[in-house]
Specification:
Its EC number is 2.7.1.40. The protein has 481 residues and is of the alpha/beta class. It folds into 3 domains: 7-76 and 176-342, Phosphoenolpyruvate-binding domains (TIM Barrel, Alpha-Beta Barrel); 88-167, PK beta-barrel domain-like (M1 Pyruvate Kinase, Domain 3, Beta Barrel), CATH 2.40.33; 359-480, Pyruvate Kinase, Chain: A, domain 1 (3-Layer(aba) Sandwich), CATH 3.40.1380.20. The chain contains 16 helices and 22 strands. The protein is elongated.
Length: 481
C-alpha cells in the first residue's frame, strides 16, 4: 500500500512507564518508536505522580505531534506480605507464620513471623492448601491455623522480602473490587484526564459495574479494561467481557492461578470470546521479558509475540521491559518489527465470529468487504473513513478485522480520539465537524492527503449519516481522494 504512514500497524502497542522511561527524553523516544497507549501501574504510583506524569505525556505528545492514550492500571484487591526488616532465607522444610493485623504479639516465636494485609486470610485457606508467593517463585503449604494466624511449611527454597504478592489458586477471596487506594488514585486520574482504567483481579461482571458507577459519579468517560488474572475471572469471562469495554489477558498472575500448560489455551479462548463480542483484547506480561537485561529477545519470545499477532489480538503490552529494563526503546522497536513482519501473513478473511446485535454491523461488514476488494485490485490503496463521536463505529470496524485496509476514524471529541487508539486497525484523527457534511468529508480527505496516509486518486469507503425526511440515516459512499 504505497504512501501509507510508516507507523501504521493493525496491532497496537502498550508500554508501561517507570524509572527507565519517565524522563522527557525517553518519553519522546518511546512515543516516536510507535507506542499507542501508555500504562501507569498504580501498584507503584501515587496520585501526585499521576497528575504530573499525565501532564508530561500530553505536553510531549503535543510537542512531537503524536498523540497517545493513557491507561491507569489500578492496584486492586491484592494480598501481600508486610514489611520485613531483613530478607528471610527460607529452605524446603522450614516453617513460618503469617499473621493478620489483629493477631496477638508473636514475640519469642521459634519460626519467622510475617504480617499479611488480609484479615480474612485464616478463614480463606484450608489446612493442606497451597500458598504461592512472589509470582509463584515460592510455594508453601498450610499446616495449621488459628483465627488470626496461618503456619506454613516451605516447599521450595526462596528469599522473602517486603510486600510480596500472595496467590491462593482457586480460593474465593472476600476483598472489595475497588480498594481505598484505588479510589484515591482514580480521582487523581480522572482529574488528570486518563482515557482507560484497567481493573485488576476482575472476578465477576459486578466488579466492572461497580467501577463504572464510580467513574460516572466522578463525571469520567474513561473506558474500562477488565484484567483476567484468576480462576474466577476465567470462569466468568462471558459476563465480564459483556460488561467491560476491553479485556487484558494478564498472564503473570493468571499463569500462577491456573496450570501453566493451560495458559495458551485460556489465552486463545479469551481472545476469541472478546472478538465474538467486538471487544478489544490485550495480551500482557512476559512478551519480551529477557529484554529487561538483553538487547535482543529470545526466539521463544519472538514466537510468543508472533502468536498474539496471528490470533489478531488488538494490542500487545510491555511491562518490566519499559519500566526498569535496560533496553526500553529497543523493546518497542522489536515489537514493531515483529508485528510488521507477521501481519501480512495473517488470513485476510473478515471476522465471522462477531455477534454484535446491532443493525449497523451489517453495513460496516459490507463497507469492510468493499474496501478489501478495492485494495486487492492490482495492489491498489484503499481504506475506510468513519465519522464518530462515541467511538462505537470505529470499535465495531476494528472487531471485523478488515485486512490490508486502514480504518480512518474522524471525531471532534478529544476523549474519543484517544480511546480509538486501542482497537485493532483504527487510526484516529481529531478534526472539527462542520454543519455541512460535505465540508466535513472534504476536510477529512484533505487531512489524510496532507498527513501522507493516502495519495491522489485513492478510492475510500466513507461511512457517514445524512438527514432524509426528518430522519437520520447511515450512508456508505465511495469517494476518490
Amino acid at each position: 500500500m504505497p504512501n501509507l504512514s510508516a507507523h501504521y500497524r493493525h496491532t497496537k502497542i502498550i508500554a508501561t512507564l517507570g524509572p527507565a522511561t519517565s524522563s522527557d527524553e525517553k518519553l519522546i523516544e518511546l512515543i516516536q518508536a510507535g507506542v499507542d497507549v501508555v500504562r501507569l501501574n498504580m501498584a507503584h504510583g501515587s496520585p501526585e505522580w499521576v497528575i504530573e506524569i499525565v501532564a508530561t505525556i500530553r505536553r510531549i505528545s503535543n510537542q512531537i505531534n503524536r498523540q497517545v492514550a493513557v491507561m491507569m492500571d489500578v492496584k486492586g484487591p491484592e494480598i501481600r506480605t508486610g514489611l520485613v526488616e531483613h530478607p528471610i532465607e527460607l529452605k524446603k522444610g522450614d516453617q513460618l507464620m503469617l499473621v493478620t493485623k489483629n493477631a496477638q504479639s508473636m514475640e519469642g516465636s521459634s519460626i519467622p513471623v510475617v504480617d499479611v494485609n488480609y484479615e480474612g486470610f485464616p478463614d480463606a485457606v484450608e489446612i493442606g492448601a497451597t500458598v504461592l508467593v512472589d509470582s509463584g517463585l515460592m510455594r508453601w503449604k498450610v499446616v495449621s491455623k488459628t483465627d488470626s494466624s496461618v503456619t506454613c511449611e516451605v516447599r521450595t527454597n526462596g528469599t522473602l522480602s517486603s510486600r510480596r504478592h500472595i496467590n491462593l489458586p482457586g480460593v474465593h477471596v472476600d476483598l472489595p473490587a475497588l480498594t481505598e487506594k484505588d479510589q484515591v488514585d482514580l480521582r487523581a486520574g480522572v482529574e488528570a484526564g486518563i482515557d482507560f482504567v484497567a481493573l485488576s483481579f476482575v472476578r465477576r461482571a459486578e466488579d466492572i459495574h461497580q467501577l463504572r458507577r464510580f467513574l460516572a459519579a466522578e463525571d469520567s468517560d474513561a473506558r474500562i479494561i477488565a484484567k483476567i488474572e484468576e480462576q474466577a475471572g476465567v470462569r466468568n469471562m462471558a459476563e465480564i467481557i459483556k460488561a467491560s469495554d476491553a479485556v487484558m489477558v494478564a498472564r503473570g498472575d493468571l499463569g500462577i492461578e491456573i496450570d501453566l500448560p493451560k495458559l495458551p489455551l485460556v489465552q486463545t479462548q479469551l481472545v476469541k470470546a472478546c472478538q465474538a463480542e467486538g471487544k478489544p483484547v490485550i495480551i500482557a506480561t512476559h512478551l519480551l521479558e529477557s529484554m529487561i537485561e538483553s538487547p535482543i529477545p529470545t526466539r521463544a519470545e519472538i514466537s510468543d509475540v508472533c502468536n498474539a499477532v496471528r490470533e489478531q489480538a488488538d494490542a500487545v503490552m510491555l511491562s518490566g521491559e519499559t519500566t526498569t529494563g535496560d533496553y526500553p526503546i529497543e523493546s518497542v522497536d522489536t515489537l514493531v518489527s515483529i508485528i510488521q513482519e507477521i501481519e501480512p501473513s495473517v488470513s485476510a478473511e473478515l471476522n465471522d465470529d462477531i455477534e454484535l446485535h446491532e443493525p449497523k454491523s451489517k453495513m460496516l461488514r459490507a463497507a469492510a468487504m468493499l474496501a478489501q476488494d478495492l485494495a486487492s485490485e492490482d495492489g491498489k490503496q484503499s481504506g475506510i473513513v468513519v465519522f464518530t463521536r462515541s467511538g462505537f463505529l470505529a470499535y465495531v470496524l476494528g472487531a471485523l478485522r478488515p485486512r490490508g485496509v486502514p480504518i480512518f476514524a474522524f471525531t471532534d471529541v478529544e476523549s474519543t480520539f484517544r480511546q480509538t487508539l486501542l482497537p485493532w486497525g483504527v487510526e484516529p484523527f481529531l478534526i472539527n465537524f462542520s454543519d455541512d457534511p460535505e465540508k466535513t468529508i472534504a476536510d477529512a480527505m484533505n487531512t489524510l492527503r496532507q498527513k501522507g496516509w493516502v495519495s491522489s486518486g485513492t478510492w475510500l469507503v466513507v461511512i457517514t449519516n445524512a438527514l432524509a425526511h426528518q430522519e437520520v440515516i447511515d450512508t456508505m459512499q465511495l469517494r476518490r481522494v
